[in-house]
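Protocol step 4 of 6.
Sequence for G-protein coupled receptors family 1 profile domain-containing protein (Photinus pyralis) entered exactly as in the expression construct, tag removed. Do not edit the line below.
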Amino acid sequence: MSQDTTPETIFTNNSTIAIPDTGKHFQELAFVALLSVVIVITVIGNTLVILAVLTTRRLRTVTNCFVISLAIADWLVGVFVMPPAIANHLMGTWELGWVLCDIWVSLDILLCTASILSLCAISVDRYLAVTQPLSYSRRRRSKRLASSMILVVWFSSALITCPPMFGWYEPGRHEDKNCRYNRNTGYVIFSAMGSFFIPMVVMVYVYARISCVVAQRHDQLAHMDNKHRVRSMRNFYVSTNACCRNRKKFLPALRTILKMRGGLQIVKNKR
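Step 5 output, structure tokens:
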């Protein structure tokens, strides 16, 4: 009897015997365990952030309104997007139906886009607060404005997510049991620009401008501090010089002041 042996199967004359690949199986378990830990950390961490802002009055600031939007988006990703991704990875095929597949993919795009645009909104809020501290902080910066910006963030995310629902997708995407993202070239470019590249350019520019403004103000404060030190030294020199020139008038006045303060003993002048 002749046989051909491989790490996964043994072929005999009458049958094929499968041998489990323990290394690959261990890698799958480790990957699933890692994703499970990430899900738990994502859900618990964002839940704590949301509860902290809602229950602590001092944390209910304008900036934290954007943080709440970001935390909600990440919390929904951890609850509704990541667990089906693990199930799809373990099964190898999508077994939950094409309706749930489309909902899952749409939620993934919607929530990830909302998370990125919330970060972009935070950067714009910081930029206006740093570059226009008086006018923006006192007149324009309010929770109503923050709510409007958050509404724009989620509405823009929905606009980027919706086109595949109206037919902008590649043909034949439901032929195999493989739930995947839309591969239509036009939609890929459109979603990538709106979800990643444009927000990235905005955030890089905004934080670069913030760095420049902070560095410029630091230089101005250092220059003002140096001018103040020079002025203080000059005033001290002028005062000391005047005292030395008028010591005959200055010393009797100093004696009188010391006597009034506590009757201290005055040392005689050394001539």
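Step 6, annotate. The chain has seven helices and three strands.
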